[in-house]
Amino acid sequence: MPEPNPTPICPLCNRPIPADVPQSLHHLIPKLKGGKGGPTVLLHHICHREIHAALTEAELARDYATIDALRSHPRLAGFIAWVRKRPPGFSSRVPGKRRKR
What we know:
- This is HNH endonuclease.
- This protein is α+β, with helices and mostly antiparallel strands and 101 residues long.
- It has 4 helices and 2 strands; from the N terminus they run ββαααα.
């Protein structure tokens, strides 16, 4: 009998992503900037929304195309510190104002 798949870990916040929690794939290089078919990472949906609320597609492609780079962004670093204190199934509206595209 095959082993059940382990619970994935969100690479942004390092919390588990339970199967019943909203999750989404993030293109490290945005599709609109040439990343279609490129590397993706599975994230909590709340983490994914925060990335796109904090950064434009151009900024993501130019300066934030890795998880380490995303973690270094001041707004995302604050968000990560905040969300790490929440349970893996936590979900809410993205705090703060969304950036213009």
